[in-house]
Design goal:
The complex is a heterodimer of chains A (617) and B (395). Chain A is built from 22 helices and 23 strands. With 617 residues, chain A is of the alpha+beta class. Classes of the chains: A alpha+beta (617), B mainly alpha (395).
């Protein structure tokens, strides 16, 4: 060994002649230092992993743990037969983040091989790309450019661009695909659900609509929003830096899907009702109109339509007047349609019989300073006759046989001044003043429909007393398995008596011959009420209405039609509203398969030259 | 019965192997852990990277090739007599220096992320600084042995004859490294050179003085400007700017925190999903910490401790055999591997500022692996020769 070392020394030079002294303590010292450093590492690791891990894990969670909202699907709204009235369809919405983008000067383009190096690097986007994007989405490119560059002050007072911008919402998946195919970095699409209403304006006032964010705004979309919307679920996940979900870190709470809402509405009858109403409103150049079709046996609403209407599928601004659900919210003085109720009240109280003769004199009656007039004086007439000819004086005489309180109670029993409880926004309970304040003239006018305000729906509800055994069922928009218990208001006998009178109204000599239907016997009462304009009854503005039952032998439908301010020539309920009733009933009874109760040659119109009997109250 | 017992005992009695089996298995284990973890740490990143052709196995493939080349290099190094290495030491050091110059010349050196560290050699990129660490080990040992006569001379003489020339050489190499810049490699070669001098018997008072001067200078620098202190110690609190300067470190620390005792399991790291940059190179330890927890960290640290211990033990053995150069080389390799792995892990754990040093034997990187493996080959060769000499053979 020594020889060996010397050999090297001799071979190379004397430089290696002296042997170094490698002291053992130095080795141990250096080794201890190094191993000591490793011990420090172990300690530090222990601190990080077993002591400080909560803080570190929270920091990690803040970076990649996200709780996602799982959106439930909105429930479908169907008619009573399951036909869809409102369904959600997936659509795409295009969005981007202006803050993470930088619009390049005009003429400059992003390099072809551009790749985002860090998370914070701004995405360069050329003006050409913005223009292409805008063109494909049919929006103004100038406006989009402006939005991309708009800044606002944040909390720290710095000018920052907005973090999120919807470029265009609710476009078809195919369109979205084409937009994404432009390959503009930083432009994304997101699936949203858009509500689609197959029945459009026909069903608009019943179903309503949702806003862009899927919240109910009108109709049942609003009333039953919670039920339709369901409950969102949640899911806590860990995402990688590109946003992909890597794992679920807690149990997934599934969303509670929105429930299907089955309405009592019959889509076919609704179509019919809307079509006929709209035609009548158009023909008579009326301000508006409303129609309600009730199932006479259960109180279910089979149709409710208003004119004018609107298209809930269109996102254009909707005229608030068109959104008005007249059938439920608009009050009107019912006029002569009230007389059937007055007669029923008197009959039921035993004050009169159908054959009781009432002296109406020359068709005028004076109560205090006021005079009540009949257009067609009927002289001494039976109750039936008074009804058929719609005599105001006759109605007043019957009403004045009643106590004020009795009359008021009766009104409330049939639902006047009482809430409908359909849940619709803006639904009106109508107006019946407290009976203690009634003056005789007021009690008198109420008998023929002035001084009491009701909605069309309330009028239809009230007429239920004539349909069956004198009961009133609560009206409902939801399909019933069995009818809700009704409230007995008049006796079955009275009901039958009034039905007979209502049928006479539609027969020659009555005010509503145009209400007749081929193959079915019908009954109803017309109303032509003067409108209160600025506190004074107008000479020209009228509300023409008709409320009727069909078939009268065993009523299945109650139809209330109201036409607001028809042209003067068509101001009479018998002219403007009764035909709507006739057409709707004819179609509906056939749709429902109700067997005819009359020969098909039953239409009896007044002979030529004989004018229709028209009432003006 | 007794006979059988003694037979069994005698069979169990260790017979000295011709090479260091424990060291061999320690290195093999480290390399295997490295291969698995490089794949695990890079898989998600490689999958989404255009540069890798979206191949998840891109880094695995490369790392496997590097390991193969590294093992071949180690075998080759093992088969070269240490005498040859000793003869080559000065030349290798010069070659290394030339390579460090070449790397700085535009057109020859390749710039990545603002650093000129690579030479393009047709199919592979060579990182001369990695080789230089090994050459410095050889050279510093040779230098120390050569200057043995002046080691414990008077203070003035030892400084002028030993420390000063070494400092000059190291200053040149250090300057070249700092020009790249590669501050990490600079630190490592300085520590290797100083370690060799210290182990070679250089006056320890001078070291004490050097450390004192450095300490005073450091304190003075900080005292003169609190702002500088904040800069220097910024790494201690990455949570002040976790989305800017502290981004990488904060994610590394989160990885440690997520790992807890036994980790989230192999492949289950979230940090490697593009959150933690350089997960397969400088921050491999963070992924090991996340996937295997403290248990994994302890295993890796223990393996490194054992490696360092073996290197020093081999050195002590060589000293006993009066093979002083060999002893210093073995211990130099120990210092290199030990110090560099400490720095790397320390950076991962937020104990010191980011250096750009890989974890020896584990991190992805061809030059590093090959240089480490040559060093291991030489270390095993020294041990092999020790054993031969003990058995009475000549080497």
């Amino acid at each position: 060994m020594i020889r060996h070392a010397r050999a090297i020394a001799g071979r190379r030079s004397d430089k290696y002649a002296v042997k170094p002294r490698l002291e053992r303590w130095r080795v141990w010292f250096v080794l201890s230092c190094l191993l000591g450093l490793f011990i420090v590492l172990l300690g530090r690791s222990l601190y990080l992993q077993a002591w400080n891990e909560d803080f570190l894990q929270n920091q990690g969670d803040a970076r990649y743990r996200r709780t996602l909202k799982l959106e439930p699907n909105r429930g479908v709204i169907t008619d009573r037969n399951g036909e869809p009235l409102a369904i959600s369809t997936p659509v795409q919405s295009i969005w981007l983040s202006p803050r993470s983008m930088q619009v390049l000067p005009i003429g400059q383009n992003r390099p072809k091989d551009w790749k985002q190096a860090t998370e914070d690097e701004l995405v360069p986007i050329s003006v050409d790309e913005v223009k292409k994007l805008a063109a494909m989405l049919a929006i103004s490119s100038d406006e989009l450019l402006k939005k991309l560059n708009t800044t606002r002050k944040n909390k720290q007072g710095e000018e920052v661009k907005s973090d999120f911008l919807w470029v265009k919402r609710h476009i078809s998946p195919a369109d979205a695909k084409r937009v994404l195919a432009l390959n503009v970095p930083g432009v994304y699409s997101q699936t949203e659900y858009r509500r689609y209403y197959p029945a459009g304006e026909v069903m608009a006032h019943v179903v309503g609509f949702t806003n862009l964010d899927g919240k109910g705004q009108e109709g049942f979309e609003l009333t039953k929003d919670a039920m339709l919307a369901g409950k969102p679920g949640s899911r806590t996940v860990i995402r990688d830096r590109r946003g992909y979900i890597v794992e679920d870190v807690s149990t997934i709470v599934p969303p509670q899907e929105g429930q299907t809402l089955q309405l009592s509405i019959d889509r076919r009858i609704q179509y019919l009702a809307y079509r006929e109403l709209k035609a009548a409103v158009d023909n008579s150049q009326a301000a508006g109109g409303a129609i309600v079709v009730l199932d006479a046996r259960t109180g279910e609403v089979l149709a409710m339509a208003n004119a004018p209407s609107y298209n809930p599928n269109s996102r254009a601004k909707i005229d608030p007047a068109h959104k008005r659900n007249r059938a439920l919210t608009d009050l009107y003085e019912p006029g002569s349609t009230m007389k059937a109720i007055t007669v029923a009240m008197a009959l039921n109280a035993g004050k009169v019989k159908p054959s009781t003769v009432i002296q109406t004199g020359g068709g005028t009656m004076t109560i205090g300073p006021a005079t009540i007039r009949d257009d067609h004086p009927v002289g001494a007439a039976t109750v039936e006759h008074i009804m058929q000819k719609s005599s105001n004086v006759g109605a007043v005489k019957m009403a004045l046989m009643m106590e004020r309180e009795e009359m008021s109670n009766f009104f409330h029993d049939i639902g006047f001044g009482e809430k409908l409880n359909t849940g619709f926004p803006g639904e009106s309970p109508g107006r019946v003043r407290p009976w203690k304040n009634w003056r005789p003239i007021e009690q008198a006018t109420m008998s023929y429909g002035y001084g009491v305000s009701v909605s069309v729906m309330q009028m239809a509800r009230a007429y239920q007393i004539f349909a069956g055994n004198g009961e009133v069922h609560p009206v409902t928009f939801t399909k019933l398995v069995a009818p809700a218990p009704g409230k007995q208001v008049i006796s079955a006998e009275t009901a039958a008596q009034v039905r007979k009178m209502l049928e006479m109204v539609t027969l020659p000599g009555g005010t509503a011959t145009r209400a007749q239907v081929v193959g079915y016997r019908v009954g109803g009462k017309t109303g032509t009420a003067k409108k209160l304009v600025n506190g004074v009854y107008s000479d020209t503005a009228r509300v023409g209405s008709f409320v009727g039952l069909a078939p009268i032998s065993n009523p299945r439908l109650i139809v209330a039609v109201m036409i607001d301010e028809p042209s003067f020539a068509l101001r009479y309920g018998g002219l403007v509203a009764a035909p709507v009733f006739s057409n709707v009933v004819a179609g509906s009874l056939r749709l429902l398969g109700v067997p005819p109760d009359a020969p098909t040659t039953n239409i009896l119109l007044p002979g030529n030259g004989v004018e229709d009997v028209k009432e003006d109250a | 019965m007794r006979q059988i017992f003694y037979q069994a005992m005698s069979r169990m009695k260790p017979t000295m192997s011709s090479y260091d089996q424990a060291l061999f298995w320690c290195v093999t284990l480290l390399l295997s852990i490295g291969l698995v973890m490089v794949y695990s740490a890079s898989i998600a990143m490689a999958e989404v990277d255009k540069d890798t052709g979206f191949r998840s196995y891109y880094f695995l493939q490369r790392h496997a090739v590097f390991l193969l080349v590294g093992v071949l290099a180690a075998v080759a190094a093992f088969n070269v007599s240490t005498e040859k290495w000793r003869l080559w030491a000065p030349s290798l050091f010069i070659i290394g220096t030339v390579l460090l110059v070449l790397v700085l010349i535009p057109g020859i050196g390749r710039e990545v992320n603002g650093s000129r560290r690579w030479l393009s050699l047709f199919v592979i990129n060579l990182q001369p600084s990695e080789l230089m660490k090994f050459f410095v080990v050889l050279y510093a040992a040779d230098y120390t042995v050569r200057k043995a006569h002046s080691m414990d001379a008077k203070l003035g003489e030892s400084i002028s004859k030993v420390l000063f020339p070494m400092a000059l050489v190291m200053a040149v190499v250090g300057a070249l490294l700092l020009l790249e810049p590669d501050f990490g490699a600079f630190t490592v070669i300085t520590v290797i050179a100083m370690g060799a001098l210290f182990l070679g018997g250089f006056n320890w008072r001078v070291f004490l003085g050097l450390i004192a001067i450095l300490g005073v200078a450091f304190v003075g620098l900080i005292a003169s400007s609190p702002y500088r202190l904040a800069r220097v110690l910024g790494f201690l609190d990455p949570w002040q700017d976790p989305y800017g300067k502290g981004y990488q470190l904060s994610h590394s620390l989160i990885a440690f925190g997520r790992g807890e005792w036994h980790g989230v399991g192999l492949g289950a790291s979230v940090e490697k999903l593009s959150y933690l940059p350089e997960a397969h190179t400088d921050f491999l330890m963070a992924i090991i910490a996340e996937e295997f927890g403290f248990a994994g960290i302890a295993v890796v640290i223990c393996l490194f401790m054992f490696l360092v211990f073996r290197a020093f033990a081999i050195g002590v053995q060589a000293t006993k055999l009066e093979r002083h150069w060999h002893a210093l080389v073995a211990q130099g390799v120990g210092i290199w591997i030990g110090f560099q792995s400490f720095i790397n892990m320390g950076v991962n754990m937020g104990l010191m500022p980011t250096k750009g040093l890989t974890l020896p034997l584990l991190s992805f990187g061809g030059s590093g692996i090959v240089a480490n493996m040559i060093a291991i080959g030489v270390l095993m060769r020294i041990d092999y020769e020790n054993r031969q000499l003990i058995r009475g053979y000549r080497v």
